[in-house]
Design a protein that fits this description.
- By secondary structure, the protein is mainly alpha-helical.
- Helices cover about 80% and strands about 0% of the residues.
- The protein contains 20 helices and 2 strands.
- It has a two-stranded antiparallel sheet with strand order 1-2.
- The chain starts with a helix and ends with a helix.
Length: about 500
Amino acid sequence: MKLWGDTGDYLFGSVRLEALKRWRAGWGYPTTLLCIYGFFSTVKPIEPFLIPYLTGPDKNLTVEKVTNEIFPVWTYSYLAVLMPVFLLTDWLRYKPVVVFQCINLFVTTAMLLWLQGVAAMQAMQFAYAVVTASEVAYFSYIYSIAELKHYRKATSYCRSVQLLGYTVGSVLGQLLVSFNLMSYNNILVLTLVLISIALVTSLFLPMPQRSMFFHRSQERHETGNVEEQDAQELPEALGREDMCAVDGEMAESPEEPVRTRSCSQVLIQLWRDFLQCYSTRELLYWSVWWALATCGYNQTVNYVQVLWQHVEPSQNFTVYNGGVEAVSNLFGAATAYGIGFTQVDWAQWGELALGSFSGLGAAALFTMTFTANIWACYAGYIVFKCLYILLITIAMFQIATDLSMERYALIFGANNFGALVLQTIITSVVVDGRGLGLGIIPQFIIYGSYFSAIAVIFFLRGVYTIMRVRQSHRDSTTAEEEPPSLKDSDTCPEQRLSRRN
């Protein structure tokens, strides 16, 4: 009996070991590690209280220096490093950039904790810009090691875990500050510990053998032109979802041999794909809104704590910052999740929705700007953030429907780059002390007016789209209902002779 038990335990252990090996060889293992990394790298309890920390006794900086001299450095640096990091990420096959991102995040937090002065905080903003630019590696990594059928699940897991990390960080910071459990400096030390866990996790990520642009399968590299030509010749009757599936079938499998392409080959192919993608009018309109709205959203989020401090100068207002960020993240996630259950023809109604909800966002910004009540300001921020998350989710879905994964990555980067260029222009003119150096109230008046202009443009465009679709529908209905006798015969002999000729 004892021998049988030992044998059974041995067989059961062998089965478990074999199952573990299969799991580690599949997409589940790297996805799990990436989710752990994403969680611990986004738990930032100090983030909702960054302005009070910088302007408080720990750093003793003025609001004007933080707003007009320190924060603009992030925008300029982000623009400078975005494209090089984007190409370097694909060339190095993601994992090294994920590790590099975490190292820079650790450096950013350490500089924020131990260094003093405007110059040091500007250097901290540059390091954080590198962290932000490296975000592309986090979301691109999973596509290099997972099969096409797992893309949606893997993306959902990674995005959800990141959102959970932001929410936990906001709630944790709220509790620590509200109950005076830790000082700001101790909260930063705790953040360093959490980042260290993320860094150790990133070291165990498997190294991908391929990437979307530089390291593609040899079969696809050699026959890509033929495949692209065949895809262009497919009948439109397949529909957008079937076309997307065809593009997906062209994606290489991990077992295919990989061939590395030169930088010039990649740049030429990216430029061709860029021109072909933006030649589609509908995709162009959605991308324009993406770039415009993301620019305004980033400006709002970057400087909203300064606005809160202006509305409620007493230090008591900081008690609620973390809770507001947590609520806005949760509500935003709920709206983004709920959009998946709506049965709306976004091709017809999408532009009108962009205009209408952008108008509501502008109203929320004006409410935040002119109110003297901090709770109304908080509520306006929650509404504004939820509306943006809702609309950017719709825009991402509409754009991704027509594109393969490689082209979607290109459009994603191009749209965010366009948003960053606009944001740099606004920052240099409106915020930077070397420009106008406006105060926080004039800044938010400009942001509200900016979203109002977006709302008007896309509302009018949406009305035009609906009228055009309905007119086309009426014309097709009239043509179908017209009697055959009127189509094939003429009342005048001269007309019949003319038709025959």
